[in-house]
Amino acid sequence: MAFLFGAMGVLALVSCTGCTGNTNEGSTNGVGAMEYPDVELGLAQRGPHFDLAYSRNVTALVGKTAQLNCRVHDLGNRTVSWIRHRDIHLLTSGRMTYTSDQRFISVHNPHTEDWILKIRFPQRRDSGIYECQVGTTPPIGHRMYLSVVEPLTTILGGPELFINMGSTINLTCVVQHSPEPPPAIRWTHNDEEINYDSPRGGVSVITEKGETTTSHLLVQKAKAPDSGRYTCSPANANPRSVLVHVLSGEHPAAMQHGGQLRLQYPFSAALLSVIVTLMGC
Questions:
Q1: Which of 141, 188, 202, 275 is at a distance of 20 to 30 A from 237, taking alpha carbons?
Q2: What is residue 128's DSSP assignment?
Q3: For residue 68, what are the CA distances in angstroms to 83, 147, 169, 201?
Q4: Taking Cα atoms as reference points, which of 70, 59, 65 lies closest to residue 92?
Q5: Would you tell me how many other CB atoms lie within 10 Å of the CB of residue 48?
């Protein structure tokens, strides 16, 4: 017969025949091993520990404030510090900042268990491992990776496109390296926002969001007034422009058909080039 005091001070009676000094081992009478949860043995006080669900890696945009969050349960009177692994530099301790780089700030609301390292105007060189450390003996820490990215916007086939009159202008804008798909992509023609419901008709946009976001601007039955500068402006990335020329008749230029580019050099133009060369001799 053994007596155990639980975590709440409640006396528990456990029957055990042939018990040894270790109550977690199997008994000699063939009874299976008996295990006692920590809470029953009064070992529930784990001390400070990290909530990994709220202390994750972060991807941030260049120039947009980044925040690394560290949630610590049962902190008590211990201090939370942030350390940059690249140079083993102590950035903050508690609410105090220990770096001359004023972009780094420690933020903590006393009503929460979150300790935030805020980085203003982050640059790509700020990418790397940051450690949230608790001043226990010995210290415990949780590492997070900050990835600072600069989204890349491209328009396929640019910077100039030559389109046959009557063909379909198909402009494809691609946004890469964005931590999340742009909430919106704005298209303009000669700095004026495109109206998809204009009387002209035949103008539409198709956007596919994902790790790489693609926006297709379609202008059917291209006319001379459709020439000009088209700009794709993602909400979270730099804009990109392309100059479109709508041509009438055959011209020795790069022509776009069905979104693809190919070179067209009519025989008459080639012959004229040879004649001019011979005359120069």
A1: 202
A2: E
A3: 12, 11, 44, 48
A4: 70
A5: 16
